[in-house]
Each structure stands twice: as structure tokens, then as C-alpha cells.
Design brief:
This is laccase. By secondary structure, this protein is mainly beta. Helices cover about 5% and strands about 35% of the residues. A six-stranded mixed beta sheet has the order 10-9-12-17-14-15, with no helix packed on it. Strands 11-19-18-13-16 form a five-stranded mixed beta sheet, with no helix packed on it. The chain is globular, with a radius of gyration of 22 Å.
């Protein structure tokens, strides 16, 4: 088995990006090596799953319209963690390339067979007209909780917000937030994070001197900060002492500028905001209060440092203040083509569905059914001869949708373990009713691909148009909850899959290889 289909391009792994100096930047074409290694991002050493030798891994970049060709090379070789893998490119629509979307059992081109150790798989997909802040992560069980995740940025040379900032580079502008566990994910049930990492660095209570991430800025300069919650569970209340943030992008969608002093961000979500370095030269705390995990900021936990050039190398002495400009999701307005599809009235769509979520006996159900990945992925079932959508498995978890229809999905909150961030593959959607609100906004609702469904009394409602034939996962992005069955699949235009989705020949080799592996090596 050849490790690399792009050996001539492997040099790109060591070349600095033209936009900055972030280590290991690749894309839109290159080799992506998945391996295991010992890391201690918070001062506690453990084995992790690494993307190009990094936790919260290498940055992948491209430009609007690029075709990405990422050759995932699996060098995992320690059964303390999962040794097979499958990568999802979160936020990319994958029009015509649903086979490259990643989730085993749904649309992974390998007939539910992930990439085994010692093998490789070439993901090819067109970014088309998408640009913004995306990310990648393992979509095999809870593997990304062991570190296999990272940012994917698609730059727009004609960014409509370009006049609002001076700097958008790979070294300064990317900020990842993640929860971290001292025990490998496959050995855990519903765990509590041991530490919170910012750009892959953090502290835990028994090691208060570990280095923290530092974001360096120059006084008088405006920065586009791309913030991603790449964690498995925690939501964060994010702030930077003494600084305001002007949100300009939500989950890869440009929005009307909206200035706040605090942002709540759930697992899988992304925000770009403009940060003006307009304070006195000094050090300022960056704070990420987790919804679960170690509370507070004692000894620098849940924190990073904003350091102005010219400031001493020291920890900040700034003090947190009460928010007066807290972000409200209902105030976020898309910059282009605002307005939900369908008629601006209740039920003014072609298809309306209500999803009831329940937790019982250690599993989640959606409308009474726990999602169990099928032996043959949904996509391959139909490509291999299933006659119609009603034949698709798993029974009760497949929701057929016609093409070119307007769809409304209502998702009442309150199920244990929330707030639950629901992510829809293959689309963005308009959130016509947000958590914490009783108002239905059809005129200009926030447009995104992950939404918090809130608590008891909430009825978060989204709309989208079925313009992307394929099987698309809708699931909770708390990975432990997905593992416990919190998911369904929308089978969108299944009569068109054979004519619009054409997997590459390489997928044909993955399943025999996977099936030949002993269970302890998977």
C-alpha cells in the first residue's frame, strides 16, 4: 500500500504559508498524515491522535473556487486509541462529492469502512463558491476528542469585509477552543474535561505553570480573528479583557457587522470577528469559560494571553468585567441574500418535520429511534441497488426529502445534557427561531450550520432548501452524544444520487482492506 499519492508535494508541509508562519500549513493539495504520539498540551502527558504531528492540527488553506485534494495517510499504530480513521470537512457542502464527506455509515465512500492503519485515501472536493472559516475532524466514533481536528480556512480574494481589518494571516488570526481529556476517548463514557485548550495549549489544576497560548498584536492594527470551537462537548463564553469584537462571519457565512464584548460558541461553531488593538501596550487575558469542565480562571486555566508588541513577557493582571454587549444570536443578520426560504408564515414550506429528542437507558432517540450506523453506508445502499428511499437503513433514522423543496425542521430543547449543538451536513440553514426566543424571524435570520437547540421551552426551528442531492447527517456535535445515537440522516433527492454522485475508484479497495483487519487493529 503506498502511503502517498502526492510524494512530490510533501515538501509543502515544511513551507511557510504566504499569509503567515503557522507551522505545518498545507493545501489545497497535499499529504495529511494521521499518526499517534505523546503530547502534554496542559502539562499532563498522554497518547493522542495527531494531524501532521499536531493536536488541534495543521492548518489547511485554500482560496474560493479551489479544488482540494487531501491525501489522508493513516500511520496510527497504538490500540490505546482507535487506529482506523475517517475525516469530515466540516461546513463544506460537498456538492457532487458526498462520498468525500466523511461519516462512516452515511456517506463515506468506503462502504462503512474507514481508512485502516497503513493505508491512505484521497479526498477530492470543490470549494465552489464557499469561503470562510471551516474545520476538519475525524468522524469515526469519538476519535477527534483525542486530538484529530484542526482549522480549514478558505480565503476570498474579494472578501466584502476586507476594508474592516488589516491582518488576516495564518499565524495571528486563528483561535481554536477545545476540551481536553487525560484518558483516551474510547475508554470513556460521558466524561468531564480535565482542561480547556486555546490553540492547543492550556493548564490543568495540578500544573499551573504550563505555557499558555499567546496572540501577538501591534497597537493600532485591526485583526480578523477566526475562532473555532473544535471541542467535543463544552460550549464557551469567550471574551478578551478591555476589548470589543465585531462579528463578521458565522459558520462560513458573511454577516452584517455586529459588535459585542462576549460570544457564546458551541461545539462545531465558528465566528470571525474584527479585533481592534486599540488599548495601552500590555498583556490582556483571553477568557473561555466552559459550560463543562474546570471552572474559573485560577492559575490561568481556561485562558490565553493577548500580548501587544512591546509589552513585557508576563502574565496579565487585567480583571474580568461584567458583559454589557453580550452576543444575541437573533441579532446576527446575513450580509448576502437574507431571508429564510418558503413563505414567511408558520408552516410555509413544502416539508415540515418535528424532531423529538429523548435520553433513556444510556442512549438518545430521535422520534423514538436511536441511530445505529448501518453495515453498508446509506449512500452505497442506493448506489448498490436499493430501489427507493424507504428501503434504506437504519430503519427509522432515514428521512427522505425531495429535491428543490423548502424544508422546516423544529427541534424542541430540554433533553438532558444540553445545550445540544445540532449540525447539518451538506447545507447551511436559516434559524427562524433561536434558543431563548419565542419570535419567528423569516426576514433576516442568522444563517449557519450548527445551532444550539436550547433548554426546556425552546423550540429551535430551521429552514433550508434541498439543493444538494445526497445523504446528509443531522447530529448533535457533542461527540459522546452522537456515539449514543443522537442523529438522523436526510436522504435528499435519492432518485438523483446515481446521476449526480460519482465516487472515485479508490473507495473500492477500502472495504476489503478494512474487513481483513483484526478487530484489535481497527
Amino acid at each position: 500500500m503506498a502511503f502517498s499519492l502526492f510524494s512530490l508535494l510533501v515538501l509543502t508541509l515544511s513551507l511557510p504559508s504566504s499569509r503567515g508562519q503557522r507551522q505545518g500549513t498545507i493545501g489545497p493539495v497535499g499529504d495529511f498524515v494521521v499518526s499517534d504520539g505523546l503530547v502534554s498540551p496542559d502539562g499532563f502527558e498522554r497518547l493522542a491522535a495527531l494531524a501532521n504531528s499536531r493536536i488541534d492540527g495543521s492548518l489547511i488553506t485554500g482560496h474560493k473556487g479551489d479544488v482540494f485534494k487531501i491525501n489522508v495517510v493513516n500511520q496510527l499504530n497504538n490500540n490505546t486509541i482507535l487506529q482506523s480513521t475517517s475525516i469530515h470537512w466540516h461546513g463544506l457542502f460537498q456538492k457532487g462529492t458526498g462520498w468525500a464527506d466523511g461519516p462512516p455509515g452515511v456517506n463515506q465512500a468506503s462502504k462503512q469502512c474507514p481508512i485502516v492503519k497503513g493505508d491512505s485515501f484521497l479526498y477530492t472536493f470543490d470549494s465552489a463558491d464557499q469561503a470562510g472559516t471551516f474545520w476538519y475532524h475525524s468522524h469515526l466514533s469519538t476519535q477527534y476528542c483525542d486530538g484529530l481536528r484542526g482549522p480549514l480556512i478558505i480565503y476570498d480574494p474579494n472578501d466584502p469585509h476586507a476594508d474592516l481589518y488589516d491582518v488576516d494571516d495564518d499565524s495571528t488570526s486563528i483561535l481554536t477552543l477545545s476540551d481536553w481529556y487525560h484518558t483516551p476517548a474510547k475508554q470513556l463514557g460521558f466524561p468531564t474535561p480535565d482542561a480547556i485548550l486555546i490553540n492547543g495549549m492550556g493548564r490543568w489544576n495540578l500544573n499551573p505553570t504550563q505555557d499558555l497560548a499567546v496572540v501577538s498584536v501591534t497597537n493600532g492594527t485591526r485583526y480578523r480573528i477566526r475562532m473555532l470551537n473544535v471541542g467535543c462537548d463544552a460550549a464557551y463564553t469567550f471574551s478578551i479583557d478591555n476589548h470589543l469584537m465585531t462579528i463578521i462571519e458565522v459558520d462560513g457565512v458573511n454577516h452584517v457587522p455586529y459588535t459585542v464584548d462576549e460570544i457564546q460558541i458551541f461545539a462545531g461553531q465558528r465566528y470571525s470577528f474584527v479585533l481592534k488593538a486599540d488599548q495601552d501596550i500590555g498583556n490582556y487575558w483571553i477568557r473561555a469559560v466552559p459550560s463543562v469542565g474546570p471552572p474559573g480562571f485560577d492559575n490561568g486555566i481556561n485562558s490565553a494571553i493577548l500580548r501587544y508588541n512591546g509589552a513585557p513577557v508576563a502574565e496579565p493582571s487585567t480583571v474580568a468585567t461584567t458583559s454589557v454587549l453580550t452576543m444575541n444570536e437573533t441579532e446576527l443578520v446575513p450580509l448576502e441574500n437574507p431571508g429564510a426560504p418558503g413563505s414567511p408564515v408558520a408552516g410555509g414550506v413544502d416539508v415540515a418535520k418535528n424532531l423529538a429528542f429523548v435520553f433513556s437507558a444510556g442512549a438518545f432517540t430521535v422520534n423514538g429511534v436511536t441511530f445505529v450506523p448501518p453495515t453498508t453506508p446509506v449512500l452505497l445502499q442506493l448506489l448498490s441497488g436499493a430501489q427507493n428511499a424507504n428501503d434504506l437503513l437504519p430503519e427509522g433514522s432515514i428521512y427522505p426529502l425531495p429535491l428543490n423543496a423548502t424544508v422546516e425542521i423544529s427541534m424542541p430543547g430540554g433533553v438532558i445534557g444540553g445545550g445540544h449543538p445540532l449540525h447539518l451536513h451538506g447545507h447551511t440553514f436559516d434559524v427562524i427561531r433561536s434558543a431563548g426566543s419565542t419570535v419567528y424571524n423569516y426576514k433576516n435570520p442568522v444563517r449557519r450550520d450548527v445551532v444550539n437547540i436550547g433548554t426546556t421551552g425552546d423550540n429551535v426551528t430551521i429552514r433550508f432548501t434541498t439543493d444538494n442531492a445526497g445523504p446528509w447527517f443531522l447530529h448533535c456535535h457533542i461527540d459522546w452524544h452522537l456515539q449514543a445515537g443522537f442523529a438522523i440522516v436526510f436522504a435528499e433527492g435519492p432518485d438523483k444520487w446515481n446521476s449526480t454522485i460519482d465516487p472515485t475508484d479508490q473507495w473500492d479497495n477500502l472495504c476489503p482492506t478494512y474487513n481483513a483487519e483484526p478487530p484489535e487493529d481497527l
